[in-house]
Amino acid sequence: MDAAGRFCIRGVQPGSWDLLVHGGGHARLLRVALPIKGAGTLDDLKLRLPPALSLRGRVVDAQGHAAAGVTVEYMRSHPVSANLMESVRTADDGRFEIPGFTREDEGVSVYVGGQEHKVTPRDGPIEIRLSE
Prior knowledge:
Elements: E1 15-21, E2 30-36, E3 53-60, E4 71-76, E5 84-89, E6 95-101, E7 108-112, E8 115-119, E9 126-129
Parallel strand pairs: 3-9
Antiparallel strand pairs: 1-2, 3-6, 4-5, 4-7, 7-8
């Protein structure tokens, strides 16, 4: 792919194919179904990836103070391989950011201190309070 986002696929046999796309701020692969009519031909294809969102939040302790260095684990959906657990750590002010979601992502499981929290990236910054 070049800097303008153009790419060329040659020698494609007729049939139904899945094109896996990664990039544009997305941390996961996106699957696009492609019906190919003639051998080796692929008409101009314009792909528009949905805007990438970050899941932003803050972890605080039971008293409401920033919780620095806390591990925030999350499960990312993946169309090819099994779901993978990933993690980030909170900054000194308790904040964290997980990139690579879309508006369609709902019910993302975030684990902090062994507790599961279901969140939706499009709802804006979240706050997770650690229990005592």
